[in-house]
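Student:
Attend to each token:
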Amino acid sequence: MKLLLEDANFCAAMNLLGKDFSPIPETQQKVEISICTLYNSQECTNTNEVRNKKWNRLTKDITKLPPSHDSAVLHIQRVNYQAAIWRRCLEAEMVTPSPEGHGWHTTDGTISIVWMTQDRAPECVLHVMKCSCKANQPCSTRRCSCKRRGMICTQLCLCSDECWNMRTFVLISKTMIVISNKETNHVTLTILTFDFEHLNLLS
């Protein structure tokens, strides 16, 4: 808290929250920068940058990641909406818009939080798995999380070089194509065709 109270950007953001029921871009940006400051990333302006920075560290801890930009924006909208109500608490007849579109969703009079509007990670990342098998013949049985899911081991895996669930590129054909242009200069195009071959032929 001391870190935030000494941060001019945070103080400015707090003064802007709730002035209107829909946060202006400046408010949203300042609050997000303050979130980055909480995660000791004062040089970042987007929580996705902080997430990427922390995830690329050798020691990964998903519990110490900040919210994604999409999730942070929705949370800022909810905070701003509530702050707008508090700012008007002394008004005799307060006029408040529906919480719909302010980080909440309403269905048949029931309000629910909208946590995210985008996928939590790109589809390709969600399918990335890794194992850390250390057996005598690592990744040779279904105890290997990659093999159990019908996936090959990759460089992300922590298994040894003796992995039995790896694939390698094997050159199966090579084609030479000669293309002639108007100046009769020849351009040679080499087409290499690859296939996958299991290192462990018995798997």
In short: Residues 145-198 form one domain.
